[in-house]
Each structure stands twice: as C-alpha cells, then as structure tokens.
Amino acid sequence: MLAGAVGNGLLLSSRTRGFDSPSATRRFSVTVAPKIPFAACCPALKFMMKSYAAYLAGIIDGEGTITITRHRQYQRPHWVCKTFLWVSNTNPRLIRTLKKRHDGAIGCTTRAEKNHKDALYWRVMAHERIYSILDSCLPYLIIKRRQAEIMLKFIESRRARYRLQYSKRELQMQARIRKMNERGRK
Fold first, then answer.
1. Domains, the chain, ranges and CATH?
2. Of all helices (H) and strands (E), which one includes residue 49?
3. How far apart are CA 129 and CA 27, in angstroms?
4. Would you say residue 5 has pLDDT above 80?
5. Which helix (H) or strand (E) holds 159?
6. 144, exposed or middle or buried, with CB in 10 Å at 0-12, 13-18, 19+?
7. CA triplet 17, 23, 24: central angle to 5 degrees?
8. Mean pLDDT of all residues in the chain?
9. Does residue 174 have a pLDDT over 80?
C-alpha cells in the first residue's frame, strides 16, 4: 500500500530509517484515523439503521429462534452450552441477505411432505455477532424480547468467565430459555 493511503479506517504512513544508508529498510507505522460514526454524518442513515434493526427484529420475532443448547461434548465428561440465533424461511433472498449482512451459516432442511417447500435457515453461533444483533434489535423485539435479554446476560457472563466451568446462574439461564422455547400448551 502507498504511503498516506487509507485502508480499513487506518492511515498508513511510511518512514525510512537511515537515509544515508543504501540498505535502508522501509518501516510502516500505523496511525489510527479518527472514526466518525456513520449515523452522525447523515440523519437519514441513522433512521435507516433504526428501521433496519426494527425490520430484523420483526424477522426474528416471526421466523427466528433464540436459544442456548446444552450437550455433552464428544468423549468429554463435562457439559457444553452453545448459543444460537436462528432464522428459518422458504425465501432464499431473505436468507442470503441475512448471511451477507451478518455472516453466519446457511443451510437447508428438507420436508417429508411433498406439498411443503424446503426451508432454508440462517444460523449465527458466535457470541459477539449474536450480541451485536440482539443488542441493536432489543428495543423492537416483542415476542422474543425475554429470550434476547437472557441471551445477552448469558453472553456477558461468559465474557467475564471465559474458559471457566458454567456457573449455576448460567445453567439456569439455559434452562429458562429452553423452557420458553418448548412447543405445545403451557
């Protein structure tokens, strides 16, 4: 990259050591350019970001699942909890858009009944991505608001207790989300 070029929000400047020396090596120092939030630049963009968060919250409320699973890891004696944000739909355009904007994984589930369409799903498992998505959608969630709040607390707790055994509180959060996601009459 050329001296003074801007890439990924970083301003790169080149410096040389030993101007007289023919074997001078080039070094690059990285100076962080001040970042201005996109929403501060343009009020219309701020509104669009809010409206997109509301739209995404509607998709999660209607077609999504927020859950924490618990299972034994292969040939290990302890339990493992995994976080999932999952949206299932038959429209491939919607699923591809979610993947493009928020990363994650895409898959397909086939239906046993001939008159049913195959369903596509978009799944996010990374704590940081789930946290950022749910945090921005939380004000707009209605049906899955409580699950989102529990998930956010679970992720915050895991950040503080990284690589430690699950606490009693974390296992209670997992059980509470599982109970909320049960099918049938309550």
1. 1-35 (no CATH), 39-180 (3.10.28.10)
2. helix 43-63
3. 35
4. no
5. helix 145-160
6. buried
7. 15
8. 78
9. yes
